[in-house]
Amino acid sequence: MRAVSWNVNSLKARLPRVLEFLAEHAPDVLALQETKSEPAAFPHDELAAAGYRAIDHSAGRWAGVALLARDGLDVEEPQLGLPGEPEPEEARWVEATVGGVRAISVYVPNGREVDSTWYAQKLTFLAAARERMADLHEEGEPLLLMGDMNVAPADLDVYDPAAFVGSTHVTAAERAALEAIEDTGLVDAYRHLHPDTVGYTWWDYRAGHFHRGLGLRIDLALLSPELATRLTRAGIERPYRRGTKPSDHAPLVVEWAD
């Protein structure tokens, strides 16, 4: 099974690239973040024509998440929103059982500034995600949490740790909150297969950061152990950060044997 996470930074602007990706890579599941789509404007018809059913949680110009499932896969029990999240109207969490796997697309709040209200809401959101994943583990389905976590798990995931001292995405509290989610029984797919390899998923649009290799690994795929033991690939599709109208994130692709 092939699953992908991609923060597209506006699905309207990036729809041609998404359709290109679907045609080239044919994922079974695609988790999208930052779709920035009004509910009525979400491109269900275009995605259906490409062979995908979409479950979207849309809120207009900010945030927005979706799960795309390849035709032929059973999609059951969709849920929009995360119990306990601080700002439900921002549309940052969607989940469904796809092909027997409980799949989640998440877009964690940025946090903006350390010790701000936004930062506190980010930590509250991560704590709510931890509680939800713990509850899902008790239900016994294989789990796949994919998305833009807006946390770099370790210094290895930051191009220059010294440049981020005092900034969000790297603080001890954020990393501890992310680790608490993993401690519910989840495995970081990329680090599982590439324990020491630098691999970024996001690069600032400014100052040629992508071409200079100045990135962060903030997009993750966290799997339950039964899926992690069957992992065959965890890779970053850097070509989709280049070309016409790229997102500032590249797709993260994970695969496991059936």
- How many individual β-strands? 14
Q: Strand order across the biggest sheet? A: 3-4-2-1-14-13
Given as residue ranges, the uncertain stretches (5+ residues, pLDDT < 50) are none
Instruction: Tell me, briefly, the overall form.
Output: globular
> What is the succession of H and E elements?
EHEHEEEEEHEHEHEHEEHEE
User: What is the oligomer described by this structure?
Assistant: single chain
What's the N-to-C terminus distance? 6 Å
Q: How is the CATH topology named?
A: Deoxyribonuclease I, Chain A
- The total count of helices amounts to 7
How many domains is the backbone divided into? 1
CATH superfamily: Endonuclease/exonuclease/phosphatase
Describe the structure.
- 46% of the residues are buried.
- It is globular and about 45 Å long.
- The mean pLDDT is 97.
- The strands form three sheets. The chain has a six-stranded mixed sheet with strand order 3-4-2-1-14-13.
- With 258 residues, the chain is an alpha+beta fold.
- It has helices at 11-25, 44-49, 117-139, 172-182, 189-193, 209-212, 225-228; strands at 2-7, 29-33, 52-57, 65-70, 75-80, 93-98, 101-107, 143-148, 187-188, 202-203, 215-216, 219-223, 231-236, 252-256.
- The chain has seven helices and 14 strands.
- Helices cover 26% and strands 27% of the residues.
- It has one domain: Deoxyribonuclease I, Chain A (4-Layer Sandwich).
- The longest helix has 23 residues, at 117-139.
- Helix 3 (117-139) packs parallel to helix 4.
